[in-house]
Amino acid sequence: MKEIKKNIVLFAGTTEGRLLAEYLQELNQPFVICVATRYARDLLEDICRPDQAGCMEIRQGRLDVTEMEQMFDELRPGLVIDATHPYAVEVTRNIRIACSGRKGLRLIRCLREPGIGDSRPGAGVVHMPGAGVVHMPDVETAVTWLSSVTGNILVTTGSKELSSYTRIRDYEQRIYARVLPSEEAVARCRSLGFEGRHIIAMQGPFSEEMNLAQLREYGCAYLVTKDGGAAGGFSEKIKAARRAGAAAVVIDRPGSGEGISLDEIKGQLKEWMDHEKKGSIYG
User: Which keywords describe this protein according to UniProt (predicted)?
Assistant: First the structure.
């Protein structure tokens, strides 16, 4: 009697992605990890080792729908897990399209719990530092609003959308960009005119004290963040901004897609594996 295990494709690049990779490894379940950047790949290298079953390969690179479909044709997975960032709208859409219409292929989206406490959509626009939380529907709207106020800004939304902030007058002096410590991220910052102390290349999530220290060190009146939930240190940012007398400018989550929590995915993984095991025993 031979058990045939179907592959799983895990789109990672987040804390949840790593936790799911570790869980799949514990279950001895064959899977392939897909990440967008070399930095994300490096953080997962210790999971995919030749001396262990489970992780078969880490694939790096941003994929469009056609490339995803070609990969699914090659790997023939039975399950795809989307554990990308809550704000990665395009990649989530591409995964959903690539999975649609494939008979027997199941897709699960890992949805990170939203932040707790001070952040609530519709709280209103605040015009004075220290007044609380400013909610914005997207980065472009936030940039327009920040262009109308004065004071230094700690931007913690990463390097991918950093070019939008160059529309702010004197952005080279006003903005301090906190990005991942990767060559790609730092190079993007420099190409946009950020130099020296205005590039903070560090790996998060950060404690409340670290956020507070940076806000005070750079004299920032505003902290720009996305609602990365507990895994992204969102609450720590909000609390630090309050203590520093700075306004927290929150880019609200896009209202697209559905998903389930990390714990719920773990439960469904076991159910899926049990189902596959019962249906894939051949004499």
Answer: Cobalamin biosynthesis, Oxidoreductase
Same domain, 17 and 68: yes
Kindly state whether residues 245 and 172 are assigned to the same domain. yes
Q: For 69-78, what is each residue's pLDDT tens digit?
A: 999 999 999 8
Residues 38 and 58 in one domain: yes
pLDDT tens-place string over residues 225-272 = 988 777 778 889 999 999 999 999 998 877 655 678 888 888 888 888
Written as one letter, the residue type at 212 is L
On whether the CB atoms of residues 161 and 138 are closer than 8 A, the answer is no
* 1 within some domain: no
One domain for residues 186 and 263 = no
Q: How far is the C-alpha of 71 from the C-alpha of 77, rounded, in Å?
A: 9
Interatomic CA distance for residues 27 and 140, integer angstroms: 43
Residue 139 CA to residue 145 CA, distance in Å, equals 10
Its domain, for residue 161, covers: 131-249
Q: What length does the chain have?
A: 283
| Rounded Cα distance, 147 and 199, in Å | 20
Considering the domain architecture, whether residues 92 and 136 belong to the same structural domain is answered as no
Checking DSSP bridges between strand 175-179 and strand 152-155, what pairing results, if any? parallel
139-143: Cβ within 8 A, 24+ apart: 139/164, 139/251, 140/164, 142/224, 142/249, 142/251, 143/167, 143/168
CB-CB contact of 212 with 236 (8 Å):
no
